Amino acid sequence: MEAIWLYQFRMIVIGDSTVGKSCLIRRFTEGRFAQVSDPTVGVDFFSRLVEIEPGKRIKLQIWDTAGQERFRSITRAYYRNSVGGLLLFDITNRRSFQNVHEWLEEARSHVQPHQIVFVLVGHKCDLDGRRQVSRQEAEKLAGSYGMRYVETSARDAINVEKAFTELTRDIFELVKRGDITIQEGWEGVKSGFVPNVVHSSEEVLKSDRRCLC
Amino acid sequence: MSKRITHNKQKMSNDGSKKQFWKRNVSKVPGSIQHVYGAQHPPFDPLLHANLMKTGNMPHTTTVKPKKATTFQEFESITSDAWDVGEDDDELLAMAAENLNIEVVMETANKVIENHSKLQEQKQQEEHFEKEEEEEEEEEDRDDEEEVVTQTASSSYSENRMVKSFSEAHIAASKEGVGERATLQRQQSLPHRPLIPLVARMADQNTSGSPVMTEREASRLDKFKQLLAGPNTDLEELRKLSWSGIPRQVRPITWKLLSGYLPANVERRESTLQRKRQEYFGFIEQYYDSRNDEHHQDTYRQIFERILFIWAIRHPASGYVQGINDLVTPFFVVYVFEYIEEEVEHFDVSSLPEEVLRNIEADSFWCMSKLLDGIQDNYTFAQPGIQRKVKALEELVSRIDEHVHRYLQQYEVEYLQFAFRWMNNLLMRELPLRCTIRLWDTYQAEPEGFSHFHLYVCAAFLVRWRKEILEEKDFQGLMILLQNLPTMHWGNEEISVLLAEAYRLKYAFADAPNHYKR
Question: Do you know which Pfam families this protein is assigned to (chain A) (predicted)?
């Protein structure tokens, strides 16, 4: 049974190889930490419901992208239809932090004409002893881009919920305020099928048309 | 679509010989093992066969001696480094050195090593962590059923062991079960302990010695042995025989012959092996900084790292691409078995004598290189080979199962979203290792097995899940299904059926080269 949801948001998770994108998503969607995950090839798909307020659920569809440069030609196709993004770096890997800017540029140049709401995520915060990027520094960078900053650990399940839910809430607010609107031919935000929620008749019609036969 | 197919049918029935061909293929039921057997030599009208070859992409290996140069092979002999027997090693080394600029070498080295040693470190920490957690778990959640099941099922793949969820609140995704299966079935490209989980536990015919051999199997093994014994192995005959699977006992030698690593002449084999192994370790000496080994003590990972490193620096247009690492595993595992007689569940690679390990490493390197030479455009910039093949897959599926194709379209599932990985990793992430090994028996026996026939296998594979696909009711369900197809329990039989169907498709659609274009 499909659970009832208010909106569906598509999100993309980006960042250097081995910063822990897949592990973070798996922790979030499957509630566990895979000991080792194979490097992502191309793009993987995940999904989960998030309850942002009692009774208000958002369905998240999450694209997990391969960090390796060779796969850019594949992964860049996924920006356009994303409304939210988690930009990860590894707090024990300075280089992955230095590449944050490059990732943002990559996203910006491929998301036109839409926009992605990003959160900057400093991952592997359980490895504090090997930290190469200070919290202040990362917060400052995030601030300069107007993004939230959150430190997470998929292994210890720290702030994983927070990272996704806060981003979801931010987007929800923007949708409510009309700053982000549902658009035909754009997958970033879709309206759900909930009683008492008004959604455009066009949306309903569109899904009805999806009968196969 | 259906119109086009009908049209083709008509076209063929107007032509006498083609009619024969069409009917013959239609009358063969997909899945027939007989059909598979000797598939390289379908009883075709030679005239028709010639026609097919002209239009299709298939090389004319049926009547051509394997060593004889086709255009492609000629091209290869010019460009490929150090492949053909009898070339001057020094010259090759010089060539290689000249072609490699130091930046490329360094960058590649960094990529390969960073990637692997990172994983390794992570692993060590995790193992440590895992132990602690295991203890905790024992005290805590004994009644967590799901967890128990998961652990039992994945026990043969220790690295897939799942860790219990912490108490973070979470609304379970509706497809959680699927995700779990997926995690279980996905094999590790690089096992993280020096143990090979040799899949023997899974009643595996491909890697473990199966205790009872059927009469048919025994007779097949005999045929192989006879063929391999002669002063000159008839490679054409060997391909025919191998298409429907190679007995475990003769698989290492057969793979080496089919890949072109070993010469058909028995007397020359030993010297060839020696030369190629020396050559490989010459590369290691010249390019590989042994300080890299300090990162970790794990023999298995060191070997993989060296193989990938040497390949990457010798192929700067590709460099190291994730996925290539997966492709080393089947060779490595099969060649390890050349040195193990007894049946084992887990095998500690580092228990092999160093000399033996070196041989396995060099052999794996060369055979992997040979494979990759045929599919290099999968891994060069923008991965044109994959893009092309995914398009071809889409076109093919639209013709063989319009319903499934339209269903995917309807829900806006793009082929690239699931089939990219099928091409990039040759289905290795979708199938258990034992199945990949069996699949590669055929790929090495089939002309352009890895580069072309694989496309038909992917098409057959997709359509194989038609029922499950049509049961899904939205994009999400389809994506999750297609990224986690339940093949965990697959064995030789399923692969044989798949190959039979792929073979049927290949010949049914071989007259339509236009299926590459939409």
Answer: Ras
